[in-house]
Specification:
Elements: E1 4-9, H1 13-20, E2 42-45, H2 69-79, E3 86-89, E4 92-95, E5 105-109, E6 120-124, E7 133-136, E8 144-148, E9 153-154, E10 165-166, H3 167-178, E11 194-195, H4 207-217, E12 226-233, E13 236-242, E14 250-256, E15 268-273, E16 281-285, E17 290-298, E18 311-313, E19 322-326, E20 336-338, E21 348-353, E22 363-369, E23 372-377, E24 380-384, E25 390-397, E26 402-407, E27 419-427, E28 432-441
Parallel strand pairs: 1-11, 2-5, 2-6, 6-8, 9-10
Antiparallel strand pairs: 1-7, 3-4, 7-8, 12-13, 13-16, 14-15, 14-17, 17-18, 19-28, 20-21, 21-26, 22-25, 22-27, 23-24, 27-28
Helix pairs in contact: 2-3
Bound molecules: zinc ion (ZN).
Zinc ion binds next to strand 1 and helix 3.
Length: 446
Amino acid sequence: MNTKLLLLPTVALGMAAFLLSPSKDASAFSKLGGSLDVSQRDFRVFNNFADDASNNNVRGSAEFPGFLAAEQAIWKGSAEWNSSARGGDITQAGIGDGQSNFEAFFAGNTTSIGSTDDNIVSALSTCNGGVIAFTEIPIADGWRIRFCDDKTFSDGPGPIPGHLYDLQGIMTHEYGHALGLGHSTVGNATMYPVVSTGQVIQRSINFDDIAGLQCLYGSLSGSKPMISGVSVSGGSITITGSGFDTAATNEVWFTHRNVTASGGDPRVRVFNVSSTGGGTSITVAIPGDAGAGEVAVKTSGSLSSDLSNTFPTDLGEPFFGGSVFSNGSGSNPPCFMSTSLPQLGQTLNMQVDASAHPGGAGFSGVLIYAGSALIPTVSGELLVDLSSPQYGFLGGSSSGGIDLYSSTPVPDPSFLGATATAQGFTFSLSVTVLCNAENLTLGAAP
Ligand SMILES: [Zn+2]
């Protein structure tokens, strides 16, 4: 069986509602009649998205290490169904709200769209009937997700432009199908079958989605292995947590460091691993094929509750810098962003969008300070700490549109890992507007 489930744009709402025939009290999730086996929790991305907007996120994330652009958005989208939370952004407090025994494991990039049970996410150049994305679901033994690239998707992070579809949120919806959920009649549920451009609400699963997930995979079990931390030293990784097998029956899973062929199992696994400390610590040599991504531990057995949460790790590989969207209480307009990574001795490119400045901006700029703050002012929230060391005060006449700024951190290795906060602003004689900020972490040059 090869069932396709379609995600439709808002204009198709009337038809979708008719197809689902909801009654007034039928507000609930639905199931597709299967669930995803523990051996099928890995997934990969074939990044053939053609639009720039799908692939222009250059902001690294310590919570989703080693991957940018479409891969990072797709990884975040599926991770929302997992049991343990990682940092989100202004649009969602955390990623990983499942509260069940289900976990998805990101296994890296692959070479093609694969077959309908290879667990691969990719783009399809054209779809029929206004469809945005769909999932092919042989269910227990795998799935395939296609995004219809005749639409334009944004890889985020944070808020997205109003004319684009949200790659992350739509992945959360489609992955809900892959794990066995049908559509919901609850309007704010991720599994509601229609979505609008600019909408990011589907990134965050709601009570109805969680109820459906727990129905399929059970509420979070107290005996499920859980990873609470990892540390890398001398070619080995130590995984700390609880519930690991004390006998040599654990498996440790790693994300593959290379692009893998679409057929076959991409997980890098170490078998027959024992733990110490009563099932609280595992140390293994890092396999040569393992790369930045995530780790998981599977104990003996094949229940969902035998697979741990997934945990991010860069495996100690060089850090190429990171920037994370930051916006206090969320009241400042999102008019600032960096467009390259903060790296030692490399130009950091930034832009301030002055187009929405009331009455037109005469001037714009960027404040870069070592510390962050959250101070309400008449111009919005000041998000840099003006009493901390100043790394930059950039400014100039505004074009009235996108104003470009740059700064080059000194190539001093002692600054590796140093953090700073940058905030944009626009200015005219009548009013100053503070934009969002970004929290920057200095990385190495590639
Ligand atoms: Zn759907």
